């Protein structure tokens, strides 16, 4: 376990954003309603669990559930905690991570340019505007049709191995589906964050992906439940987080509510975690980043809203 003192100081991180204890955020369902309660103490740096550099793939199976949003917000949160991060957009041709990080105009060279000898790998790394020494974006290619060199598991492994000495975290944004792009993106990863929305199609695909990750030797898989709507859970039109957790059987890294600010921040190229005051989704991503660093998880708990009246006599005896 790496000590927090190994982390470079982060002058940009306000002291008020540093918890003193592992975050505890519980999701509580009361009669079909999901509530979140958190006790966050903010005056210490997180301790990195496990061996650094850590290579984390953000995956889902189903498209459009929030992988890139999660990759952008986790990467930025990690950098703000003083960790050196490389965010790799492994979606060749349909890249979006540059847009979400507001770096689209700076992507001139890609990993494929480095692999084909046109530049060095460090020249293809795009420094973030806010944390230039801590966060770098690496795009695999600019268009799906152009690459002369095929990108495969072997070449991505080479790229990740080359980045490892200078990074604490390597976050890989995986393409949707389970075809060649997915196989390539998961190859260098030691751990995975599985993003899902609480709907049956996303859950079926997520379940399939868990099997494939395990086959690939990735045993450390955590789940992010995105776009949760308490009003729909209350109306029993959406599965609760607990239901999702029971279906997938994975440890819970975070629960992100549906939040219009996500779309606004996507369009501005300003990840949500930078918003002050924080929005509910921004806070959820920030807390998830803390848990990721510390190897922590959260729990989803069911609690009845009203205590049932105590039964007397035989009924109480029979339960
Ligand atoms: N919590 C949220 N609240 C509201 N909108 C969200 C939330 N999370 C993601 N979105 C929106 O959902 C859309 C898809 O998100 P994103 O691009 O991150 O998904 P993805 O899984 O990476 O998609 P793809 O599979 O195509 O790569 C975006 O328009 C994004 O703004
Ligand atoms: Mg994406």
From TrEMBL:
Residues 56-272 form the CobQ/CobB/MinD/ParA nucleotide binding domain. Keywords: ATP-binding, Cell cycle, Cell division, Nucleotide-binding, Septation. InterPro entries: CobQ/CobB/MinD/ParA_Nub-bd_dom, MinD, MinD_FleN, P-loop_NTPase, ParA/MinD_ATPase. GO terms for molecular function: ATP binding; ATP hydrolysis activity. Pfam families: CbiA. ATP binds at residues 62-69. GO terms for biological process: cell division; negative regulation of cell division. GO terms for cellular component: cytoplasmic side of plasma membrane; cytosol. It comes from the Eukaryota. NCBIfam families: minD_bact (TIGR01968). ATPase required for the correct placement of the division site. Belongs to the ParA family. MinD subfamily. This is Putative septum site-determining protein MinD. It comes from Iris pallida. The lineage of its organism: Eukaryota, Viridiplantae, Streptophyta, Embryophyta, Tracheophyta.
